[in-house]
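Q: I have 95 residues here and want to know how they pack in 3D. Can you give me a structure?
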Amino acid sequence: ISIPPRFKEIKTEPQVADIPTNKKIRLTRKLKEDTAIRICQLIDDGHNTYARLKKIISDERVLKSSIRYGLTHNMYGTKIVKISPRTYGVERRKK
């Protein structure tokens, strides 16, 4: 038994052209914290300068706000520290 085409469930995913590219991403606390944790992992992998991080995280607003969030908040025992004006490190704290 086949299902007639008009009763089949149509699943469509948004096309890239449908999403406006100039729409700003909302900078929520959850987004900043998740991105800051990802930045800590990238710093551990050797991407410790702002330029290297910018190549991976292309949205400059998200990158700047996440670094600022990581500098001021503790996230699961880690914290981003500034070594020089454009170089960052990760400080680990025991609970």
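Q: Anything worth noting?
A: Residues 29-44 form the longest helix (16 residues). The chain is about 40% helix and 15% strand.
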